[in-house]
Design a protein that fits this description.
Blueprint: H1 2-58, H2 61-68, E1 89-97, E2 100-107, H3 113-116, H4 121-127, E3 134-138, H5 148-159, E4 163-167, H6 181-199, E5 204-209, H7 211-225, E6 232-236, H8 262-265, H9 268-274, H10 280-284, E7 291-296, H11 304-318, E8 324-329, H12 346-357
Parallel strand pairs: 3-4, 3-5, 5-6, 6-7, 7-8
Antiparallel strand pairs: 1-2, 2-4
Helix pairs in contact: 6-7
Length: 360
Amino acid sequence: MRRRVGETAASKRTEGKSVKRETGEVQTKTRSSWWVWVKMGLIALSTLYVATPFILQFFPSVIQYLVYKHAVTYFVDLRRPCDLGLNHTVNMYLTSEAGVTLGVWHTVPEQKWKEAQGKSLAWYEQSLGDGSPVFIYFHANTGNRAAPHRLGVANVLSALGYHAVVMDYRGFGDSTGKPTKGGLITDALHLYHWVRAHSKDSLVIIWGHSLGTVVATNIAVKLQEQRNPVDAVILEGAFTNIKMPKGQSQPFTWYYWRFPYIQYYFSQDSTEANIHILLNGENLKKMTTPLMILHSKDDHMVPFRMAEELYNTAKSVLKSEDKVRLVAFDGSHGYLHNGLYRDPSLPNYIRKLINTIKPI
């Protein structure tokens, strides 16, 4: 009996040692497997680090995609804005130049939503001349006209009783072609002239957001030189210059600066050759158009100080408190770069702008 008990105890001790040994082996294998993945990841990052300059040298269009990000899209049918709640909006296409077709949405004032049901493109075109202000919105460098914050702006304007015309530049959304500096300006001017041709005596205001601000200020200056000035300009999340002092980050592409060879991505030669530097600061030195600058103090992509710099530049040129205004939104709201359309006071600021420029 004692022998059996002893044998049983010895067997248990042996089994315990075996289990511990097997557990130790499993832990060793797990650590080993984890370390293999770490090494593979480090090798992959090192390879990317070394290969990046060569990739950019032989495929410069990569920079274009990094900056414009026009390939980033939303899985929606842009021909059906009603699917996104814009049930008083028409989708149309304009040709800005040979081979370039632009996708455009026109949202009429909210009070016309019932009348707008089932109406033709011709009806929408004629409605631009009904006397209500018309806003042309130039969006930023990512996605297309279906982005949630762009829908938000269209809804705010429509609720105020205004028209909203939102375009996708060439290469964005379902517009054809590839984005370039000259191309974006050509597209914007074409849309402006098209709106002017149909709006009769209605006010026409251009609203640019982020990258769209440089489009807005560029065409405002060109139209001013052509003696066909826009009635007012709104700049939302505007930056001073894309060309930054050495060692400082680009405003609307700040996150790229955390990766290898990022200085090469946006070096002087690469920038000028591929994304074409546009200068808001220089444009505002020439603009005499009434201007409103909208900026959130917690903007994580374009620092608020840039809005202050642009405001000071414009004020020194216009020399009028009535013709230029900086509207700052408190950072506690969490609007960041794209959320200003959610602010309940925004409609009042837009109304004040309209009342300021409205012909007597």
